[in-house]
Structures are given as C-alpha cells and as structure tokens.
Amino acid sequence: MTARVIAAHTDPMSVSGHKGSGSPSGPGPEPHRAASIRDVARAAGVSYQTVSRVINDRPNVREETRRRVEDAIEALGFRRNPTAFALASGVTRTVTVLTSNTTLYGYAATLQGLEEAARAAGYSLGVKLLTPEDDLDRTLTSAVADGGGLVVIGFDRLGATALDHVPADVPCAAVVEAPPPGRTPPRPAVWADDREAARAATAHLLDLGHRTVHYLAIPSSVGTRHSEGPRAQGWRSALETAGVTPPEPHGGKGWDARAGYDQAQALAHDPAVTAVLCGNDDLALGVLRALHHAGRSVPGDVSVIGFDDAPHSGFVTPSLTTVRMDFQGLGRDAFALLRDRLEHAPRPPAPTFAGTALIVRESSGPPPA
Amino acid sequence: MTARVIAAHTDPMSVSGHKGSGSPSGPGPEPHRAASIRDVARAAGVSYQTVSRVINDRPNVREETRRRVEDAIEALGFRRNPTAFALASGVTRTVTVLTSNTTLYGYAATLQGLEEAARAAGYSLGVKLLTPEDDLDRTLTSAVADGGGLVVIGFDRLGATALDHVPADVPCAAVVEAPPPGRTPPRPAVWADDREAARAATAHLLDLGHRTVHYLAIPSSVGTRHSEGPRAQGWRSALETAGVTPPEPHGGKGWDARAGYDQAQALAHDPAVTAVLCGNDDLALGVLRALHHAGRSVPGDVSVIGFDDAPHSGFVTPSLTTVRMDFQGLGRDAFALLRDRLEHAPRPPAPTFAGTALIVRESSGPPPA
DNA sequence: CTGAAAGCGCTTACAG
DNA sequence: CTGAAAGCGCTTACAG
C-alpha cells in the first residue's frame, strides 16, 4: 500500500550553478565545467570565431585548421551550449507541443510520432498540458517564450481554442480533427480523413443489413450545437445516402470507457438498436460492456464499431471492428510542416498520404434475423 | 484512405529571426519584437537593473519604484526571456524526461504526473525517447546540454541503463521499478511497492482455493537471468510462504496484448492451470483472449489478474481484477525530488505514500470444483 | 535604495 | 582564410 521515496544527496553542488574551483567532494568525477568555445580555441591555437565556423560547418576554413579544431573539440569533449546558441542566433531547435491529454491512445500516439520526427531532425521536444482551469494565455505565452515552434494537437475543443489563440507571428503547425473551414487556412495543419472513414464504417454496417446505425460521439473540437465533428458527419452522410434518416446521436460527454458505458445505457436497452458506431475504441468498450449488462449479444443482437484501433482492440472479446488511424504519421507530418516554416523552406511541404482503414473483426455482423 | 496536409505560409518572417523593422506583411498584427528589460526600464524611467530586481522579487526597491516598473511591465506585456535568464543565471527551469515509451499506460500516466508537477512549479518539460538503435550517450549528452534536470523513467531495461549512464554531476531523479540495490542509493528515486502488491494479488488467488498461481511477466528492468522484477518476486514469495513451489514463470518478451496472447498459449492449453497473474493489464487482456480461443472460461476455469488498472480494465468482459497503481503520484514525487536537488533544498524531501491496491473484479474467482 | 560594469557562451557582421 | 568587435537579454557582484 505504499510508494517509497528515497533521496540521495551525493553532490551538493549544482551543475548548473556558477562554477568555482570548488574542491571535489567525495569520490567520483569532480564537477567539471563544460568546455567552451574559447577553451577549444586555446587548445587549437586559433581564435574562437574560427571554432564557431567549424562547429557550424561554415566555409572559409583551411583544411588543416579545421582538423586541428576538430581534434581539440574531440579532446575536450566540447558540445555547443544550446542556450547560448539560442540567445545569440535567435534560433531555437525546439518544438513545444500543446495538448490537453497525453494518455488517450490517439494523443499519445501522435505525440510519439512528433517525438520521433523531432529527434530525427535534431530538435528537442517540449510538452505543455492544456487544462480548462489554467490560464490559456499564460500557457501560450510561456510556450512562445521557450522559443522554437509550436505544434498544437487540436483534437478537442481545448486544443482548438488554444490554436485560435496562438499569435499570428509564432511559427506553429497543428494536427486537427477536421480541415479548417474557409479557403485560406490560417495555419499549416494535418488531419486524417475521419469523415470518409466514418462513412465507410457506417456503409459496412448498412451493407451487413442493418436498417440504421446509431452513433455515440466523442466530444468534438468543432461546435457542439450547430455543427458536429467529421466522424459524426461521415456517419450522417452515409445514412442519408442510403435514404435513412439519421437518429439522434448520443454521447459527446467523454472519451473513455466509463463515458461509453454511461452514455450507452439508452442504446443498450432499446431493442430496436442493432448497430452502433462509436467515436473511439474506448467508448466502444464501454458500449460492449453496457450491452453485456443489458443481456444483449455482440454481434448477434447488436454490432459495434469503434475508431482508432488502439493496440488492445483486437484482443478483447468480441474483438473490435474499428478504423485504423495513423496517428504517428500525423505527428510526423505536423512536425515536418513546422520545420519547413521554421527553416524557411523554399517549397511548400509535399502532401503526405497516411491511411485510415476499416479493420473488420468480431464485433460487427449481420443484424438478428 | 488518406491523410491530408495543408500548408499555409501566411508569415514569411520568422519570429525567432533577428528583428528588423520589416514591413508588416498582410493583415494581422505586425511582427512585434518582444519587450526587453531595457524597454521596461525606459518606460518606467529607471535603470534596467532595477527592472531585474523587480521581476526577481528582490528587496531593496522603493515601493513606488516597484509600482512604476510593474505598470510598465503590464503596459508593454513584458515577459522575461527564459533563454537569456538561463544563460545569465545558470539556472534552467526545465526538466527533461527520458523514457523508452510514451503510449503504454504506466508510462503515459507517469509522464502526466510529471507534467502537472512541472507546470505547477513553473518548469518546462521536455521529453526524449530512448531507443535501442539510438546512441544512448548522444541522447544523454543532448539532454544534459538542454540544461535543467533529468527524470528518467526506469521501468525497463533501456531506462535503467540510461539511468546508469547519467553523469554523477547532473541533477537527476528517477522513477524505478524496484528499490535500488545497496545501502547508498546512487540517485534520488521513487518507486511503488510492486513486490508487496504482487504478493497480495497472489495471496488473493491462493485464498480463493487455487493450488498454485502461474505468472506471465513483463520485461524487467533488472537482470533477466539471475534476478527478476519485483512483481515476479512478490508472486514467488507468496507461493513460497504458502508452501507451494513456484512454477516456471512465462513471458518477459513484451508489454502489449499481442505479447500476452502469444506468450500465453502454453498456459491456455494446459488444463492444470487455474490461475494466472500477469505483469500488466495489457498482457492480461491477451491471456483472456488466448483462454477464450482455448475454450476455457474466466473465472470459471481460470482466474486472471492484471497489474496497473488501466482505465478500460474495468469495462472489458470479464472485467479485470488488477492492482491499481498511482503512476501520476510517482511522476509528481519524482519531480519533487528533482526540484529539491535543483534548488538546493535544505531538507531532504519527505517520503510520500502513494498507494497500490488490489481491485477485485470479475476475472478472479474460485477454481473449478 | 539605485545605477554603471562585466559576463553567461555563443553568433553575426565587419575588418584585414 | 582568420581575427577583433559588438551584441543576444538577462544576471551577479560592485559601487555609490
């Protein structure tokens, strides 16, 4: 019933504190001031500007001089101080991602794609959590002050709002739930074709013979009242195409299995319901559970389809028919967009095509006879 | 089947580039050089050192002067440049977390706890992913160069190895799988009592009447050959206490449901097996699935217990008996440890007691008669 | 209580 | 091809 904390105070001197030639305390390597550009210059017998040229791969350095400097760098274990670099050059190889969540599968996977791309490009990655209680402007200002660029994950309302508040002159890319409205998008952004994916999932159920399909929504980043998210739109459009009047959508109040369970009560107990499309897999798990408690079988009595293809969705029973998304690809693409913006790329980034795909498993089938 | 990328190049000027009084391009606010300490000083009619005093809450500033400076700060929207602050002061309010994973529940939740604590303390949080392919020393050097402190998530071998390689003079705290061996721990660290939790879970199964309990392991951060992780130890110890010879543990080759499914084949098809403790909930889901495919019911034929209590574990069928962990608490505590180290706290941090708890649900019950 | 100086580690012009 | 100067925005002593 306990978590333990143990503290070891082995080194009373802060490495970040100003150096003094303090006597080495205790065993181990003595606190070692990092070599600076001047130390390297001295060791190589050149001026420190020349060192700067070498570490920045600038031309106009004699081959032999360059070699001597490189040897000194190696010998002293020199690494350029990123803080000083940032201050002097005005360039920060940093990307800060703003997100309201880091544990839900879609968010976590997007974050991972972002991280991989950032690391590959030599960027550091920062994370700032968006919370309703927190002062949004404060969070944004502090993110901007950190330098570098911003990537906002705009899957939900909080993220979308944050995106709207990013000052126009701050380099920023976004991964969003749906294409921004209007012809001149305010920001570089990436998104998956959720609308089409939802349409295909709904059509799959209709093709199976269901007379209609109910929808349990995730909270959307776009208006809750007058408009709905792309997944809901795709569902609605598939029904309309088939000449079916869409029933009232459910949900919209949460993302997790508990929210799915709670919000599916009405659906689960309505014998007319034979097919439910869910805004994500967690919600679908909750629906499965509600159906179980209502004594209805899946897919015998009711078919259920999820969204996102979380790693465990193929291993629950019944395994979940769902839409596979490429969140990591979205993250990578968003980083690429930001980087182009940051580094003044001459050409606009090439469109990439990461896929969505309907994965049919056990939870969907024909309606009861 | 597509993800779309759209690029908007609304602002050709980089905000991070050196300012020039560039003509404002297009609509929107013109690129605005952030106010500096000198701008504030000018506006307030004082020297910039006085501004420095005010923003650092230093004494020895006349009340009226302070007020004038604060007004100027407000009027100009001044925010101290963190990069310059870091360079001049040698203090970086940044924590970089090193982790091999960001999507598995335990990692993601720990990260979230870290983020919350960091934000509350006014620290920025960076994330660096640890990969087997990557050069560990390079990753570490770059993390250290970013300044501030490190928190490494040492749940697995990669994390534990990284922790071992952190130079002794770098401020660092860790969240680890098990208490560090030896009496003088090398680093401030936090951990939960996994051993005791696994013991309790195993005892629960024994109390239910099972003759023995099998174990499906997660990969451990500690030696795979001569030693085993704390969860395995707790399981083993509970069996031994009950006078039962522990069977050979399974698993150790992966963390997710697929790994659980694959590694549970032998257990699932062995009629003598009536109880399985799993290293985490994902593994348990895979075991449930393997059992289902083998035609064995849970908990009728076999009881299954997981670890971690992931958010959906209560909503699968059968719902999972599992051990609830306080990963967020672990993250918060690790940050507190690091902060104390960074800010030279006089007192060692007080031990905190975050809980683990056995949550009994549907997947465990008495053995078949 | 307040100001003038020097410096953090680097870069970008500007000389030679 | 290489060096001396000025500056990034702030802080920490040091004067008054």
Q: What does the secondary structure layout of this molecule look like, with pairings?
A:
The structure is a homodimer of 369-residue chains.
Chain A: E1 3-6, H1 37-44, H2 48-55, H3 63-76, H4 82-89, E2 94-99, H5 105-120, E3 124-129, H6 136-145, E4 149-154, H7 157-165, E5 172-176, E6 189-192, H8 194-207, E7 214-217, H9 230-241, E8 250-251, H10 257-263, H11 265-269, E9 275-278, H12 281-293, E10 303-305, E11 322-324, H13 327-342, E12 357-359
Parallel strand pairs in A: 2-3, 2-4, 4-5, 5-6, 7-8, 7-9, 9-10
Antiparallel strand pairs in A: 11-12
Chain A binds a DNA duplex (16 and 16 nucleotides) through residues 18, 36-38, 46-50, 52-53, 56, 59-62, 65, 80-81, 83-90.
Describe the structure.
Two copies of one chain form a homodimer. Chain A is α/β, with parallel strands linked by helices and 369 residues long. Chain A folds into three domains: 44 residues, lambda repressor-like DNA-binding domains (434 Repressor (Amino-terminal Domain)); 115 residues, 3-Layer(aba) Sandwich (Rossmann fold); 132 residues, 3-Layer(aba) Sandwich (Rossmann fold). The first copy, chain A, has 13 helices and twelve strands. In chain A, the strands form three sheets. Chain A has a five-stranded parallel sheet, sandwiched between helices. Chain A has a four-stranded parallel sheet with strand order 8-7-9-10, sandwiched between helices. In chain A, strands 11-12 form a two-stranded antiparallel sheet. In chain A, α9 links the parallel β7 and β8. The two termini of chain A are 52 Å apart. At the A-B interface, β1, α4, α5, β3 and α6 of A face β1, α4, α5, β3 and α6 of B. The structure holds a DNA duplex (16 and 16 nucleotides). Chains A, B: This is LacI family transcriptional regulator. Chains A, B: Keywords: DNA-binding, Transcription, Transcription regulation. Chains A, B: It comes from Streptomyces asoensis. Chains A, B: InterPro entries: HTH_LacI, LacI/GalR-like_sensor, Lambda_DNA-bd_dom_sf, Peripla_BP_I.
